[in-house]
Amino acid sequence: MICKIQVVTIGEDGRNETREITSIQRTDVKPETLGLTLAEGKMILKDLQQIVVESQVSSLLLPKRTCPDCGEPRCSKGNHTLSVRTVFGQLTVRSPRLHHCICRPHETKTFSPLAELLPNHTLPELLFLETKWASLMSYGMNIETLARRAADRRAGQYFHHSPARRRCSGALGARNGR
Q: Whole-prediction pTM value?
């Protein structure tokens, strides 16, 4: 059996573009070959993300190629690659540099619309997940510490919390002006 995974992109003008992501071939059914492997799933999602991002970038850049003030086409200075960090991995996207129009003054001669859209080169969903995991990390470390303390108690080594509590409340009281 061969499974082909394709993406059909329908543009604003109604034009269809079909791109194949991958083909998966399975000959026998075993627990190891049933469904997708983790590596295959990650590869498919990363390739799908690449196609979606490229389509979105091309539709973003289309109106930026003309000056919004006078409607004249902007000249291109060239392209560079921009690395974008996503939840599904790092992607590389072509990012053009465009000259500003001379119809009005600008601070710079050229600009990159994609670099303006993604100044950190990281999608917000990845930043959210990184922040969430970072905030949970200290909690996990605290749980490990409490588990060790509980094990110490069972072994007959007691942790006396009252001196620690006094130090903490004293420090907090001093901080709050008490």
A: 0.64
